[in-house]
From TrEMBL:
Domain of life: Bacteria
Similarity remark: Belongs to the ComF/GntX family.
InterPro entries per the UniProt record, alphabetical: ComF/GntX_DNA_util-trans, PRTase-like, PRTase_dom
Name of the protein this chain belongs to: Phosphoribosyltransferase
């Protein structure tokens, strides 16, 4: 069921309500599944038990579900980055790997490093709503190697694994909007 990423009430096709919108907010957000049961277990195993083979299954099911969603006209997808130390320790960024498969299936250009995470932060899973927002404040930046292409990007989908409070997508979206991208959407595996 599509909902506004800000007030969490139902909305048409996951669009941000007019009363909830501002210049620096996401234009909408869609999640394929509820974050419960099998999907929750699969995502947790992928992230914390390094069960990378589950990522391929999640990608396949996610891609088969995407045509039923009403997505904006987009041409670019970028994943939520994780801090370099965490990526080196874990060995992968699940949002990058699954996002690459999604972009390929949807025939979107994939920009794996449009955003960078400037600082290490506490795991969002350990925090409540207000603390999550504070934890990520200023955590993202546009990768300097891509500043020259920003003006040519009309719309971008930011991909992440889970939308809980929306803090991660909102902070990343704000960063892209400040850089000049007009339309920014969030897409997650689960909510």
């Amino acid at each position: 069921r599509p909902i506004c990423p800000y007030c969490k009430h139902p909305s048409i096709d996951g669009l941000t309500h007019v009363n909830c919108s501002s210049k620096l907010r996401l234009d909408g957000s869609l999640s394929v599944w509820e974050y419960e049961s099998v999907i929750r277990k699969a995502i947790l195993a992928l992230k914390y038990r390094y069960a990378t083979e589950i990522g391929n299954e999640i990608s396949d099911y996610l891609i088969s579900s995407l045509p039923t969603l009403v997505l904006p006209t987009v041409h670019y997808l970028t994943p939520i980055p994780i801090y370099w130390y965490k990526e080196n320790t874990r060995g992968f960024n699940q949002s990058l790997e699954i996002g690459r498969a999604v972009a390929g299936a949807m025939d979107w250009k994939f920009i794996p490093d449009l955003l960078i995470k400037k600082q290490s932060t506490i795991s969002q899973a350990e925090l409540g709503g207000k603390a999550r927002r504070q934890n990520l404040k200023g955590a993202f930046a546009v990768n300097p190697t891509h500043k020259s292409i920003i003006n040519g990007l009309e719309s971008v989908v930011i991909f992440d694994d889970v939308f809980t409070t929306g803090s991660t997508l909102m902070e990343a979206g704000k960063t892209l909007k400040k850089a000049g991208i007009k339309k920014v959407w969030g897409l997650t595996i689960a909510r």
